[in-house]
């Protein structure tokens, strides 16, 4: 019920002034490390990430560049208005491909958002198409706007937080298979 919205989750939303530079994944890794040292009980199965523009680039960098030993898998991510480019392939020759830590998205539910008039629309649409073709858990929402319809997507009435809560890293208990 969005009228009595009381979330039971942590949403990590990191915003940096410039995501162009190597090492921006370390900012998100540091936030995740700080959370791991909190004296409060944290359900690591319900850590979510969202970012807008450079913040989204920071999340992409975290997922694509963080070494396995430091990577704490989010339960789901919401990426908004970003130049999403895969680690493999070549944009200019049209040979984009998922590889390396792009493959982490195979197990991270992702909701991508972009305005159709946003400069990043083409890049984000192609990356989401790669994820969809690979049968990754991805959904894509667009709006007839430029770089910035974020307020409507972050409004609890829109449903992003409800969607986050439908995702968890907790193992699913399956009944035993009968012989």
* Helix content class: 25-40%
Give me the side-by-side strand order of the main sheet. Answer: 1-2-3-4-5
Structural class: alpha/beta
Cα distance spanning the termini: 42 Å
Give unreliable regions as ranges.
none
Query: Which series of helices and strands comes N to C?
Result: EHEHEEHEHH
* Main pleated sheet: 5 strands, parallel
Helix tally equals: 5
Structural description of this entry:
With 179 residues, this protein is an alpha/beta fold. The chain has five helices and five strands. The protein has helices at residues 25-36, 54-65, 121-133, 150-154, 160-165; strands spanning 10-12, 47-52, 76-80, 110-115, 138-143. A five-stranded parallel β-sheet has the order 1-2-3-4-5, with helices on one face. Helix 3 (121-133) links the parallel strand 4 and strand 5. Helix 1 packs across helix 2 (54-65). The protein is globular and about 50 Å long. The N and C termini lie far apart (42 Å). The model has no long low-confidence stretch (mean pLDDT 81).
Keywords:
5 strands, alpha/beta, 179 residues
Write the layout of secondary structure elements.
Layout: E1 10-12, H1 25-36, E2 47-52, H2 54-65, E3 76-80, E4 110-115, H3 121-133, E5 138-143, H4 150-154, H5 160-165
Parallel strand pairs: 1-2, 2-3, 3-4, 4-5
Helix pairs in contact: 1-2
Quick summary:
This protein is 27% helix and 15% strand. It is an alpha/beta fold and 179 residues long.
């Amino acid at each position: 019920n969005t009228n009595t919205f009381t979330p039971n989750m942590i949403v990590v939303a990191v915003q940096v002034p410039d995501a162009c530079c190597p090492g921006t994944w370390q900012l998100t890794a540091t936030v995740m490390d700080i959370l791991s040292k909190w004296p409060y009980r944290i359900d690591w199965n319900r850590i979510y990430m969202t970012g807008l523009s450079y913040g989204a680039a920071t999340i992409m960098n975290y997922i694509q560049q963080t070494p396995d030993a430091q990577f704490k898998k989010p339960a789901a991510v919401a990426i908004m208005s970003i130049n999403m480019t895969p680690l493999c392939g070549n944009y200019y020759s049209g040979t984009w491909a998922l590889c390396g830590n792009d493959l982490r998205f195979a197990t991270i539910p992702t909701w991508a958002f972009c305005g159709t008039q946003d400069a990043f629309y083409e890049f984000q649409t192609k990356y989401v198409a790669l994820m969809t073709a690979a049968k990754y858990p991805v959904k894509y929402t667009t709006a007839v706007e430029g770089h910035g319809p974020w307020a409507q997507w972050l409004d609890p009435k829109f449903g992003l937080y409800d969607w986050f809560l439908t995702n968890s890293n907790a193992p699913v208990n399956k009944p035993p298979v009968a012989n």
